[in-house]
# Entry
Amino acid sequence: MKAGFVAIVGRPNVGKSTLLNRLVGRKLAIVTSRPQTTRNGILAVANRDNAQIVFYDTPGIHKPERELDRHMFQTAIQSLKGVDVALLLIDVGHADGASAGEDERVLKLVKDAGIPVVLGINKIDSRKKQEVLPLIERYRHKHDFVAIVPLSGLTGDNVDRLEEVLIAHLPEGERLYPEETLTELPERFFVAEIVREKILRLTRLEVPYATAVSVDAWDDSGELTRIEASILVDRDSQKLILVGRAGSMLKKIGTSARKDIERFLSRKVYLGLHVKVSADWRDNKRVLDELGI
# Structure
């Protein structure tokens, strides 16, 4: 029996959350095409007959500009402490130019952690095999990786092979969590993330990045679960966009989120959304702590 911790790290938008969902067999991390979607570390447990892999999905590592960015950066760095293996994920389609420099910065941080590193070359479904091979050869000379695995978190191609490699480098031991455990995070966290995912998908420009979601009230006493949540924004203009004409955008976000929340909780839900303005919340440590970021 093998059991241990694996940190999934990489720059923004390389597919870490999509891969995590594939590995655990359930959507825990929200997924959008926008960079910096993930803000919190997400612990997720994958149980197999011969192993328990405790994954730690992390925010994309990028140059921090705001207090929020610094929180996200520290979350990613802290994830490398105390884990057994680091899974460094890169995007095969964006491994050159400026993106290559960002990948190099992440690789240095992983090297400094002094733990075994598996390199995952993600999104191979978007490239021909002959385009992937030179990238594998290039990275062989950058670090003594315990393995290099081309894969697609979206289609599942070669993810089984990745699992085998990770399990091989975990220590022997009993399960670290009861077999029925999927995550340590509370349901409130995932409800807030589902709402934020809809904002990311339905709004544009700076609005998605200027928003955060907090669950203010939760009542299971009736026939359905009643949830009240607040959406924080920086400015009044962003609130106008989120609310929309006659409340149309907020209703659209709420309807879409409620359906996903009901699937996640496996019960009927009433979802009330309210938009609040909190100037410069992304640079306010107290607000960030209250949001659990």
Q: What stands out?
A: The first strand starts at residue 2 and ends at 9. The chain has a mean pLDDT of 88. The first helix runs from residue 16 to 24.
